[in-house]
Specification:
The complex is a heterodimer of chains A (112) and B (113). Chain A is an all-beta fold and 112 residues long. In chain A, strands 2, 4, 5, 9, 10 and 11 form a 6-stranded mixed β-sheet that branches. The chains are: A mainly beta (112), B mainly beta (113).
């Protein structure tokens, strides 16, 4: 069974204090790894897709990386508006519908 | 503004009521999904409609029934729900069912009394 584990569960940072969120996964036949941001009471918002080990994607203060077993979301000099829950999801399998498995998320709080 | 529109945003219903949640997308996506999300938990897949074919998470009880009138609309009919069904219900769509990005709606917050 596909498994996705995110750590830490919660992270509190001072504004400008860089850090990383971890997403470890065990799947058979990875098709894609996704990062989403979710604000309270709202739907997840897409950030990145990574398809193969060694791939990196960047957007503003965020950078996502992928290895064969885990992905990191690096946050450089975060701002209070980066506060949200960050969800990692993996899509695996072949043919037909390929199930997406979400991790439990990391709740990030950035303090001014 | 989100490109997946869900109505209503909030719904309160009794255990004997029948209600429906609605979802609409105009991005030409061929797959639409219903997810259930409880507080501090990840979204959990309930149903997928893709190319007019329905896939079901077998753990979803029959008091939830999806309906896809056309490729842009997805409804979730609710009947005889239990208080533990209270949650945020998220609709999403994607271009297909390969490794495609999910575009989520803002969600419908359901409270069952």
């Amino acid at each position: 069974e596909d498994q996705v584990t995110q750590s830490p569960e919660a992270l509190r940072l001072q504004e400008g204090e860089s850090s990383s969120l971890n997403c470890s996964y065990t799947v058979s036949g990875l098709r894609g790894l996704f990062w989403y941001r979710q604000d309270p009471g709202k739907g997840p918002e897409f950030l990145f897709t990574l398809y193969s080990a060694g791939e990196e994607k960047e957007k503003e203060r965020l950078k996502a990386t992928l290895t064969k077993k885990e992905s990191f979301l690096h946050i450089t000099a975060p701002k209070p508006e980066d506060s949200a829950t960050y969800l990692c999801a993996v899509q695996a399998g072949s043919g037909g519908y390929q199930k997406v498995t979400f991790g439990t998320g990391t709740k990030l709080q950035v303090i001014p | 503004d989100t490109e997946v529109t869900q109505t209503p945003k909030h719904l309160v219903m009794g255990m004997t009521n029948k209600k429906s949640l609605k979802c609409e997308q105009h991005m030409g996506h061929r797959a639409m999904y219903w997810y259930k999300q409880k507080a501090k938990k990840p979204p959990e897949l309930m149903f997928v409609y893709s190319y007019e074919k329905l896939s079901i998470n077998e753990s979803v009880p029959s008091r939830f029934s999806p309906e896809c009138p056309n490729s842009s609309l997805l409804n979730l009919h609710l009947h005889a729900l239990q208080p533990e069904d209270s949650a945020l219900y998220l609709c999403a769509s994607s271009q297909g069912t390969g490794a495609n990005v999910l575009t989520f709606g803002a969600g419908s917050r359901l409270t069952v009394l």
